[in-house]
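Task card 7
Instruction: Convert sequence to structure tokens.
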Amino acid sequence: MTCCDQKCGLIAGTVVGALLALLGGILIPVGDLVIKNTVKKEAVLENGTLAFDTWTSVDISVLRQFWIFDVQNPDDVVNQGAKPVLVQKGPYTYKTRYIPKTDITFYDNNTVSFMLPAGAIFERSMSVGPEEDIVTSLNLAVAGVYSSIPHFLANLIIKKHNSTLFQKRTVKEMLWGYKDPMLNTTLGLFYDYNNTVDGPYTVFTGKDDITKVATIDRWKYNSSLSYWKDDFCNMINGTDGSSFPPLLDKKEPLYFFSPDICRSISAVYEGTVDLKGIDVYRYTLPSEALESPAINPDNHCYCTETKVSKNCTLAGVLDLTPCQGYPVYLSLPHFLHGSPDLLEGLVGLNPNPDEHSIFLDVEPITGFTFRFAKRLQLNMLYGPSKEIVILNKIKNLTIFPIMWVNETASVDDETAEMFKGELISKLDLLKGIQIGLLVVGSIVFVACLIGTIVVSCNKKSKKKNGLQA
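Output:
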């Protein structure tokens, strides 16, 4: 091979390497653009898209696990004013949301409405015992009249029916209802849940603006709530939590609305975790979400009960009376992130962020929620009363935890493998090609460029030596 052939070959290699590297560099933004456009197209809620098929699917089981606080010393509490000693009993597990959305209707303004049927099927194999297990818990009727009517009148009703502060009930009765002899009505923590529907929800399809996909436009025909003190707390923000607009920015919080808590709330990025081989963003409820208005002014209009919190300084509890119609207080399990005062009058509570916090694991490209745990605790109030005889020995006002629930779901293995095959593997292949072209092209370009320089230097050296000779 002549020197000219070597140099020409090296120059050609340099050009080819540069072109390969350039092609790899061009493919990065072009590939990203193709990915974004494809994701945005498939994220729209309309027939035939991946988002719509996932949105209407009922393949992922949603479970509700209940833990009921069993009172160990009910007589000591009433007769001596002792602190209640509590032992949580559970889980009692039910399969919920196994019924698909109904009445799905599309509208010309790029919205779609639907109803969410509710149901619960007991899963004995996933429970600590049968629904007939007996627990000693707060008497819902007594706690209700304590908070709702004048105490002298409450005492007359309580004495007439010989009611007690605590009662023994089966798990099934506490959750799904029993005929209360004092109020002559059905009481139960979730007695109005089974065989009902929630909605209608009206959400944006994202067809005209993908950043609004699945965002709630109306709930029960209204664009805002009417429970709270002003428009800010009555806003319906975000989605229902099952999905979010695609291409997440981890710096931005996710907003979702939950009828269970009668408000919208936000979650913030905590970290990236692996779920069945898929990288998902974990979002958690920040502690300030249920902080007192004295610390978080955004919560000022949720403060409604001065008897519980003077000057709205209590953290960790939300009074649901305005929306539920009866005196029930919501918190995180074991009063996680709540004021220390909530724990002082009780024995047996141990708040733990790993077990009691709310989180969502969201796939960042599609915005689909692949796993979540919604953990909430229901509480009622009782305290000292001169007029109510059975409360004469009670020493302190107590927000009493009745039970907590963990509503959870996770993508199954089959769906995870399908997702990895349909999207993740293709993205990895595209990234591999991009990086491969860039790296190989750069190496060839640099090697050939160096070779060209060496050949040129050798040629000049030989020519110089020939002239000297």
